[in-house]
């Protein structure tokens, strides 16, 4: 399957369904009262990390993903159904970035991990919610809250334990083929490898994953060669295996070129643990090996290992070294997914009924709003105050239909309960002639009035 590691897609969660305007109509029951149900919540946009996927190629062909809108409420207090979610299946290691590709909004690193990325809009309240002592036949309803929409970039950063680095032709793919069951293309010309390959190394009971990426050349960070665009695929590895072609004239220059590109790339790549391997030892004389090893050790200040991917010489030692470091690193920090080079910020709330007060906060881990039970209550009270004010106005206007758009703070459950009670009291004490006419007129032979 063709490899693609970035794609731009448009996501939209479903709008909430509108509430219904309806009145109870039943034989022998006069003035049945409002019974319009609430609209259903819009579908969410869910992102799921699926095992067995290694490319984002599917997202080249389909770029727009919209969740279903919530169904509208109906008479007899029937609430609308929830809109269906839309689920994007992406490879493990996929990050979601905002449109300018700077901020990581979500990072899926575990197989099966699911995130609600955009939450569907809440359904609007039906007219049953707007019953008050003074307006017994409200024709008011809420049209539902809009869903969220966003253009985002999906970017795959493969997750491997060890990353292979080197100039083109250093023998990276040969090493991968020699140590794993992967079958990368190997040839005697630069840029044989055009997209990353993964392979699993099995050493006794242990196993780890190696990533082979296209070779880097000087100026890769400025876009030379294939650029440094594939470096992201080794960014999350625990260790780098830097292979140097032993047959090159100046191995120190080769080493420096790659180090400079790592520094220019930024992030944590240059600080990552590195094993340096002088490759193609089979094609070198012993003195040459000694000389080049010493020069490289002087430059890097670290031990240089001698190997040949083609003959297998020294390969086991290199694998053992990699495995030791990987195991140590896993013992220290089992879930480490090294910080991405890009910034990661919490996602701001959009188009939700939930409040944006200090106590509630967006938990990026679970992709939901969390915190402050108090915050919920505070919200209800606050909204209720708003509601009372709105009702006071209503009264003045003699129960006229209010525009749904103006009534953003008009429905909460507590408000409903309270106003119901208030209603009962009002029935006893009040002579509600004015209002009584209204339900009859509204319900006469009409179906539930849904917008
Ligand atoms: N003598 C010798 N030749 C090798 C060895 N490893 C690789 N080669 C040769 O070097 C050439 C390049 O090998 P690749 O494995 O394709 O190199 P690469 O680093 O993956 O190259 P790119 O994909 O272009 O970045 C091929 O002709 C290999 O046969 C080795 O250990 N000894
Ligand atoms: Mg290669």
Explain how this protein is built:
Its cofactor is Mg(2+). InterPro entries: G_OBG (IPR031167), GTP-bd (IPR006073), GTP-bd_Obg/CgtA (IPR014100), GTP1-OBG_CS (IPR006074), GTP1_OBG_dom (IPR006169), GTP1_OBG_dom_sf (IPR036726), OBG_GTPase (IPR045086), P-loop_NTPase (IPR027417). Residues 441-451 have a biased composition (Polar residues). It is found in: Cytoplasm. Residues 365-436 have a biased composition (Acidic residues). The structure is a single chain. The protein is of the alpha/beta class. The chain has two domains: 6-156 and 345-392 and 410-450, Spo0b-associated Gtp-binding Protein, Chain: A; 162-332, P-loop containing nucleotide triphosphate hydrolases (Rossmann fold). The chain contains eight helices and 19 strands. It has helices at residues 58-61, 172-179, 251-265, 286-300, 315-332, 373-396, 413-429, 433-443, and strands at 6-12, 20-21, 45-50, 64-66, 86-91, 94-97, 103-108, 114-118, 149-156, 162-165, 197-203, 206-212, 239-245, 273-279, 304-306, 343-344, 361-363, 368-370, 449-450. It has a six-stranded mixed β-sheet, with no helix packed on it. A six-stranded mixed β-sheet has the order 11-12-10-13-14-15, with helices on both faces. A three-stranded mixed β-sheet has the order 5-3-8, with no helix packed on it. Strand 11 (197-203) and strand 12 (206-212) form a beta hairpin. The protein is rod-shaped. The model is unreliable at 338-358 and 372-451 (pLDDT under 50). The structure holds guanosine-5'-triphosphate and magnesium ion. Guanosine-5'-triphosphate (GTP) is lined by residues 166, 168-174, 186-188, 190-193, 214-215, 279-280, 282-283, 308-310.
